[in-house]
Each structure stands twice: as structure tokens, then as C-alpha cells.
Prior knowledge:
Layout: H1 3-52, H2 57-62, H3 65-73, H4 79-90, E1 94-99, E2 104-107, H5 125-131, E3 136-141, E4 148-157, E5 163-171, H6 174-183, E6 186-190, E7 196-199, H7 214-223, E8 236-238, E9 244-246, E10 249-258, E11 263-270, H8 271-376, H9 386-406, E12 414-417, H10 418-429, E13 439-444, E14 450-453, H11 455-472, E15 480-488, E16 491-498, H12 508-511, H13 528-538, E17 542-547, E18 553-560
Parallel strand pairs: 13-15
Antiparallel strand pairs: 1-2, 1-5, 3-4, 4-5, 6-7, 6-11, 8-9, 9-10, 10-11, 12-14, 15-16, 16-18, 17-18
Helix pairs in contact: 1-8, 8-9, 10-11, 11-13
Amino acid sequence: MSQRRILVVLVLILVASVTSYVTLTQYLSRQEALQTQKRAAFFAQTIDDALRRLNHLPFVIAENPVVVDALETKDATTLNPLLKTFATRANASQVFLMDLEGRTLSASNYETPESFVGKFYTFRPYFKDAIAGRTGQLFAIGVTTGEPGYFVSEPVRNSEGIIIGVMVVKIDLGGLARSWQASGERILVTNSQGVVLLASKESDQFKTLQPLSEAARSEMANFRLFGDRPLLPLDWQVQDDGRVTLDGDEHILAQASIEQEGWTVHLLTSLSGIRQRTALAVVGILAVLFAIILAVTGFRSARLKQALAKSDADRIRLTNEVNVRRVAETKLKAAKDELARSSRLAALGQLSASITHELGQPIAAMRNYLTAQELANGAAPGGVNAQLTGLVDRMQNINNQLRFFSTPGVGENTVFDLRNAADAACELVSHGVNPENTSLNKRYSETPVPVSANKQRVEQVLVNLLRNAIDAVADQDLREITIEVDKEDARAFVRISDTGPGLEGRTLSQLQEPFMTTKSSGEGMGLGLAISSQIASDLDGAIEAEENPEGGARFTFALPRSGEAP
């Protein structure tokens, strides 16, 4: 698809998305307005029911003879517990009785520190209405308790029908506001002057929808309706389309009246929620659309891939054949190298058998002649001709190394502690270590390291590796050899590290070749690692070689761990 066609498609999708968003927002707003109006009427009815629930209670209590007797005798001793019982059973906030002077004679909270007894409330409109023979109704903040409530009052008459006092019931409407908070609705209930009496959001209560006039504030102050609350205006703005902006957020407004009190219920539904739902719906539609586009594109891509797969089949088959041939050539070369090495070792074995046979008796005879000469002259061992004795020892060592290839086999295996074999090997090479300039450090496992093998041949490997390490550090300023013995998973190992020149770029395979040596003529034949590798292989073990990160070389002789205790 060309870039121009892609651009046109994207523009069409954008226009369709914007149109869908606007249309869906308008539709959901109309639907939400209808539902909001119904909910507002429901909340108004709920409030009206709460106000009317105890309207009859002051009249019923005022008819009680005990109330009349308390006003006539000025003794509320019997009445106080009775009013407390009425308040508890009717679930009223407070019930109290006032005389004609506005002094409270009896109250249901007579036992509390906020008791109304002895307090005067002549300034309250509900007192004046009751004295005038009418039912008084008022929403106000309690002067004594500081708690808002709805007050209902009735006159108390004696047997002659004369008004002698006022009975008042206070109803707590806080439970309604708390239930609104749990519902998540934004609700304001205002009086005729626009003061918020009840609200689902606590910070909205006792605020105003518009600034109050000085006359209205003065009247409220005279009746002490809202205590010391400042009655600050909310950020309330009514728009031309009937919507309301509150705290910077646009809302759908639904109103319902509570005619008994002249109150108004304002139910607000945030447009941000509607817009969010609309956006999610548009995103869902776009997701479906893009899924269809991707499906079509995927179908076309699948067909294209099938065509490409057919053309690539021959190339892949040819590549596989080339790879198989390369692997076969690699294996063939490795087999040829192993065969050549085996041939060399076999030839070396035959040659070694011949040499050790031919040289064994002459060397023994030479050693015997030298010993006899030393005894005849009464000299110490090696005292007649130390150089000749050293040459005979060297010839014997070379003959001993060659004898390995003529007598293969691992012998009888026993279970032993690899640490003991390492100690024995160290003891055998100790004469070649000068403690003044060469240090031999041992780092052994704290627990036994059991292996099942021929102990003498294990020691032979360790001696060869230690001798190589001693020779490697001979010309170094720092002459340090470290031998570690430990176990790891299913294997036991001895690791010998030195501070010599390292492997110098040679691999273990190169170092294992017979007669491969870096020593000067007469100091070694290059058979040590070849012999050691053969022994390790016969014992189901292995020798590893690597450069020491701290300098020098590091050789590891690994064997299978034994499950038996040494």
C-alpha cells in the first residue's frame, strides 16, 4: 500500500473516531441526565421520609401526664429517665422539654457533660413557633453539642388547654450523608437561601451556592443557625445548557425539591466519567477495526510467506546439506587426529618396551658399580662422582617414564581420601622445593574427599603436575604454588596453580603430545602430561588446563566422587 493511501485511511479513521466520540458523548449524556433526575427524586424522597419519621413524636410525648406534671411542679426527676427511654427507642438524637421562659427543665442527655438541662433556647425559631401554638421545624447546628440536626417542636398544654411549655425532638441526619459518601454520588442539599445543609462530600457542607446578602447573614446569626461557620461560597457556576461547573469539573445537574422545608436536592454527575467511558468505547471500536485490518494484512502476509517458503525450501535444504557435510568433515578430521595420536602412542609403547628392556640392566649395573666403588673407597653415597651419579639418576627417571607406555593398566582400585594422595605427592616433590624462595600453599576441604581409584597412579599424576609447576616458577621473581583439594557435585578435584609464565598460547591437546616440552635439552622428555592424561582417562577422570587470572597456569585433575567413606 502506498504512503498516500495509508495517509488517507488514517485521516478517515481519525474523522470517524472524532465523530463517534462526539455522538456517543451526547447520547450517554442524555441517558445519564434521565437517570440522574430519577436518582435525585429518590434522594429527595429519602430525605423527606427521614424528616417526617419523628414529626409526631413531640406531640405524643407532650400529651404524657408526667411531662405536664414536671412543668407544673418544676421537678424533672421522674421525667429525665423517661425522655432518655423515648430517645433511645425512637432513635432520636435528643429529646428535651422547655418552660415558657425557654429554660430546659428536662433532657434525654441529662447525664452527659453536654446536658441541655438549665440551658436557654428562646432564640430558636422552633421555640417561638411552639409558644405560638404551631409545630416548629428547623435545621441548625446545636449550640451546646456543636452537632447539626433537624429540630421538631410542639407546644405542651395543661388540662385546660393552656400552653405551659415546649417539647422538642432533635433528629440526626448525618447517617444520610455517610450513606451518600459510600455510594460515590456527589449530592448537595440546600435551603432556600442556598446554604448547603447536607452533602456527600464533607468539605461541601455549610458552604453556599452563591454569596449571601448581609441581611441573610444577620438573620442566621440572630437565630445562631450555623454557629461560627463562615459560610463561604463554593466554586459553583451554572452554564447556559443547564450544566454546572464545580471545582473546575463539569457536571450534569439534576434537582428535586423537598417542599415541606423548601429544600433542594442537587445531584451532580461528572462529565469526565462519561467522556472516559466514551473514550474507552471508541478505543474498543478502533481496536476491533485495527484487529480486522491486521487480520486481513496477516492473511495476505501468510500467502506471501507461503510463496517465499517454497522458494526458500531449496536454499534451506542446500544449507542443511552443507552443514551436515561440514560436521562430517569436522568429525572425520577429529577421528584422523585421534587415530594419529593413538598410532603415535602405540608406537611409543612399542619403542618404550624395547628401550626400557635394553637400558634397564645397564643402568642397574652402572648404579651397582658406582655403589661398589663408593663402598670400596669408604665414601658417602654420591661422593665418588656426583655428576656421574646424577646422570645415572636422570637416565633411570627417563626409563621409568617410558615404562608407563610399555605397562598400561590402572591396577586395583581402592577408596581413599584425595587429600592424603595430595600430601603424598607434595612429600615426593618436597626435595625440589626450596622453602627459602618457593612457597607451596595447601588449601584442602575441611571434610574428606573420597575417590575410588589406583592411589599410586593418582599420586603419579599429581607428582607430574607439581613438578611441572616447580619448573614453571623456577625463573620467576614470585615463586608460589597452590594446591587445592575439594569436591563439587559428583566430582572430586585437585587444582594446582602456579605463578609461572602460563600456557603461552598452547592448548591442552598440544601440551599432551608425547615429547612436547618447553624445557632445555636433558631436563625432560615431554612425557609428563601425556602420561598424566592417559592415567586420568583410564580412571574415568580428566585434566583441564587454563590461564590463572592472577598470572601463571592452573591445572585441574578431576575424578568421580565415591559414595563410600575412605
